[in-house]
Design brief:
The complex is a heterotrimer of chains A (552), B (115) and C (173). Chain A contains 18 helices and 20 strands. Chain A is of the alpha+beta class and 552 residues long. In chain A, the strands form four sheets. In chain A, strands 15, 16, 17, 18, 19 and 20 form a six-stranded mixed β-sheet that branches. In chain A, a hairpin with a 5-residue loop joins strand 4 and strand 5. In chain A, helix 6 packs across helix 8, helix 7 packs across helix 8 and helix 16 crosses helix 18. The longest helix of chain A has 22 residues. Chain A is globular, with a radius of gyration of 23 Å. With 115 residues, chain B is of the alpha+beta class. With 173 residues, chain C is α/β, with parallel strands linked by helices. In chain C, 28% of the residues lie in helices and 18% in strands. Chain C has an eight-stranded mixed β-sheet. The chains are: A alpha+beta (552), B alpha+beta (115), C alpha/beta (173). Chains A and B meet through helix 14 of A and helix 2 and helix 3 of B.
């Protein structure tokens, strides 16, 4: 993982001092809320229904155990003993007091953490695959590129007051685990015919009121040109993105209104003027950043040893956990372990301080001190030796994070919704809880297979419902909570927006509807291993629609 | 509940209060005669747009103490008690409708008792 | 509104001219964009420093033919959240080579001073007197920056490489 140096630490500390001054001026009446609001947003401080919310950046989802312990400490000292991992690989605390924020931020800064640019009309957390650096199918570690861009866009003088927020994702693997095409800007590494590595640049993705998938504006960008090209995209957006209407201000609208080709031309013209300037990424610079990423000293271990096979045979629950939560690692003898933050009847993505501390300890013991956060709101221990898996599992199980429900219908992705969020129209968490209760049976989960349920409490789509296999969107009708259901969305390299299946259903019926959809799938599938999403593609939504609305 | 933060023109069709969040800690507060209260039962209740506008002006003027004031409906019960008038306001009074993680629930309770 | 240049509050020697006002000789003037374009030949031939007030929704490339004649360009922040003029400033400074005074006008607040300076502004019509007085302190709030800036600040990437001559092992943060 990336090691901060004196420069990085200084910046974060100066940011804390800056914010402390701004909070003091606010509380002394020298700054109005109108003046203060953009400043606090740029530190990730939102106002929610009950309290302020602090969103802390977890750059590309990588955490050290030391940082995770500090998050636990902040949860205990400044919040209500828990935190919420988000769909952008960040963490949120929902009960923060403004007056205490500077102190909380100072403590976070001591381990290199901050809330910089987790909100506001600037470039947000740059996300990537939670298996970065250890995935067998990646070309190289995407986090190096994410870090190069992250530094470049942090407190960027030109791009801190853009028309709207700007989300960037980087991917280098064959399988897209970073949901690239729903981002404002996505970089997908691949090799050209000469075997050189470069990036496909895609622009204009985003969910919300007018969802779009990103379009390719440059099929192959040389790595040396990454920063200058990103600069050209941001400059074009900053100048020509709409500022007259908040709902039309994202770059996706600009790309849509100009057309991808015209937009690409505009960017190209700007880029040509700067491509050989100060932003060229020469080898020395790339090497320097890459050198600050520390990798474990892996041992030479046997892959799938007889002992490991025996352990699986002996204990059925352990075996079920391995089958579901453990994935192949780049390095033989090692494994990638996913920790489910989706307990039965629980809030997706929440973790208590006790859990965070315990996971930090386990990371030290079994994962070279490193943890990852995925946009699916689960955690990952990325460097676990296979021989340690039995002991790890025995430690994870009592923490409640070893449920083998990853990628199942119970692995629900959900925004906080109206229980917390002032933007929401409806609650999302109780819907998730009820669905997880209905589908708590592990055999049923396994039988249904990979089935992504995404829930958003409002059109801002923080739950990414548009790209869920089953998408659930909360709306308000005459003061009551109703939910639109979409089917067939996908977030991966075959990204697709889901289709609405019919009129919104009331709160009390949503879990029933999901049960109907699941039942329909079981009846319609051609074979037990035909996935829900593939059955749906084959049959279309009509049979599902019929089933859901037959009695409604 | 559609965010009332986008309210432009005040329309009053029943009893309403003005509510906001306290600047220093984000706590839910209600406009009353001489300032703010955390207790809905002590809030100033009005029944027409002029009254609501007056409360809003006073609230907006207190930029130091309160942020994001808006008009919220209430329900008046026969016995004189005041209840929040919609789900959003019920959640603001009662907290999230879901069980918080156990440790968190204990802390929340402690804060409630103190407040 | 106090004017800040070189870290201090100064008198504004420029006079703002409206669309129909007479233009005095030998007085530095700032002329609105439309008028400037319509009367460019006369204005550039005139005796006296010339400035133009350029809106933030027009490309500054239109000014390229006259940059040599302009002493000052005033760019606009209708609200401080509207950051288009940052791009305009950088284009003028870094791509079109403008060497004159770049003035930030409109909703110019203390918390943007360092951004403005690094984008190339060197003259500031500051909305609040207290902010103007705090300019010197505010503009140096961050000693580490990640991007090249017009104020000559070296980005951290470059400083690191310079330092890396001393081949130090990065310490755990």
């Amino acid at each position: 993982m990336y090691i901060y140096d004196a420069f990085d630490r200084t910046l974060v500390n100066e940011r804390v001092a800056d914010f402390r001054d701004q909070v003091a001026r606010r509380l002394a009446g020298e700054l109005t809320e109108e003046e203060f609001k953009p400043l606090r947003l740029m530190n990730g401080v939102y106002l929610q229904l009950h309290a302020y919310m602090l969103r802390i950046a977890i750059p590309y989802g990588t955490l050290s155990s030391r940082q995770l312990r500090m998050l636990a400490h902040v949860a205990r000292k400044y919040d209500r003993g828990y935190g919420h991992f988000t769909t952008r690989q960040n963490i949120q605390f929902h009960w923060i007091k403004l007056a205490e924020l500077p102190n909380a931020m100072a403590e976070l800064a001591s381990v290199g953490m901050h809330g910089m640019q987790t909100s506001g009309n600037c470039v947000r957390n740059i996300t990537t695959d939670q298996w970065a650096g250890v995935a067998p199918d990646e070309i190289e570690d995407p986090r190096i590129w994410a870090e190069l861009i992250r530094q470049h866009v942090t407190l960027h003088p030109e791009f801190s007051f853009m028309p709207r927020k700007f989300k960037i994702a980087v991917g280098t693997a064959v399988h897209d685990r970073a949901a690239l095409r729903i981002h404002d800007l996505a970089l997908r590494m691949h090799c050209n015919e000469a075997g050189e590595r470069g990036f496909e640049v895609m622009v204009g993705g985003g969910l919300g009121r007018t969802p779009f998938l990103a379009q390719t504006i440059k099929p192959f960008l040389a790595t040396r040109d990454v920063l200058s090209y990103v600069e050209a995209v941001l400059r074009t957006y900053n100048q020509f993105g709409r500022r007259d209407n908040m709902w039309k201000a994202r770059i996706k609208i600009l790309v849509h209104e100009l057309g991808a080709e015209a937009f690409a031309k505009e960017v190209e013209a700007e880029w040509q003027a700067i491509r050989d300037g100060a932003l060229v990424l020469d080898d020395a610079t790339i090497k320097d950043i890459a050198s600050r990423f520390k990798y474990p000293r892996y041992e030479r271990l046997a892959d799938n040893s007889p002992e490991f096979a025996q352990a699986r045979k002996t204990d059925q629950r352990f075996d079920a956990w391995v089958s579901n939560c453990v994935n192949n690692h780049k390095v033989p003898g090692y494994a990638i372990v996913t920790l489910s933050l989706k307990p039965e009847g629980g809030t997706p993505g929440d973790a208590t301080d006790v859990q965070m501390d315990a996971i930090a300890d386990l990371a030290d013991r079994y994962s070279f001190g490193e943890v990852r956060v995925g946009h699916e709101q689960n955690l990952v221990l990325p460097h676990v030796a296979q021989r340690d898996l039995p002991a790890l599992w025995r430690a994870l199980d009592p923490l409640g994070v070893a449920l083998p429900n990853i990628n199942s219908i119970a692995d629900i992705i959900s925004c906080p919704g109206l229980d917390y969020c002032s933007l929401a129209n409806a609650r999302s968490i109780p819907i998730a809880q009820e669905i997880s209760r209905r589908f708590k049976n592990l055999d049923l989960q396994r039988d249904l297979g990979r089935l992504h349920v995404n829930i958003s409490g409002c059109i801002n789509a923080c739950g990414h419902h548009h790209v869920g296999h089953i998408g659930i969107l909360g709306v308000e009708k005459n003061g009551e909570e109703f939910y639109q259901i979409t089917l067939g969305g996908k977030a991966d390299e075959h990204a697709r927006l889901g289709d609405l299946i019919g009129p919104a259903v009331p709160y009390a019926q949503v879990a029933d509807v999901v049960e109907d959809i699941a039942a329909a799938y079981l009846e319609l599938r051609e074979r037990p291993d035909e996935l829900f999403i593939d059955t749906l593609k084959r049959t279309g939504i009509e049979p599902f629609r019929e089933r859901v609305y037959a009695a409604r | 509940m559609t965010s009332p933060l986008d309210q432009k023109k005040i329309k009053v069709t029943g009893p309403v209060v003005v509510t906001a969040n306290r600047t220093r800690d984000g706590a839910v507060i209600y406009r009353c005669a001489d300032g703010w209260t955390t207790n809905l039962g002590d809030a100033a209740i009005v029944t027409d747009a002029a009254g609501a506008q007056a409360l809003m002006s006073a609230a907006a003027a207190d930029d130091l103490g309160a942020i994001g004031p808006y008009v919220a409906p209430v329900q008046l019960l026969p016995g004189g008690q005041v209840r929040p008038g919609n789900l959003r306001e019920r959640i603001r009074v009662g907290g999230p409708t879901i069980a918080l993680p156990i440790a968190a629930a204990k802390v929340l309770e402690k804060h409630r008792v103190q407040a | 509104m106090p004017l800040v240049e070189n870290g201090k509050i100064v008198e504004d020697r420029f006079v703002r001219i409206g669309a129909d006002d007479p233009i005095p000789d030998r007085v530095p003037v700032i002329v609105p964009a439309a008028r400037f374009l319509a009367e460019a030949d006369a204005l550039t031939a005139r005796d006296g420093s010339l400035g133009v007030a350029w809106p933030n929704n027009r490309r500054v490339a239109e000014l390229k033919p006259w940059l040599g004649h302009l002493t000052l360009i005033a760019l606009e922040f209708p609200k401080f959240r509207d950051g288009r003029a940052y791009s305009q400033a950088r284009l003028l400074r870094e791509q079109y080579g403008f060497r004159g005074t770049l003035r930030a006008t409109g909703d110019v607040l203390r918390d943007q001073f360092q951004f403005l300076t690094r984008a190339g502004f060197d003259s500031f019509e500051v909305r609040k007197p207290a902010d103007a007085a705090a300019f010197a302190k505010s503009v140096a709030r961050y000693s580490v920056v990640y991007q090249p800036g017009a104020d000559g600040s070296l980005p951290a990437l470059r400083r690191r490489l310079q330092r890396a001559g001393a081949a130090s092992v990065p310490k755990e943060s």
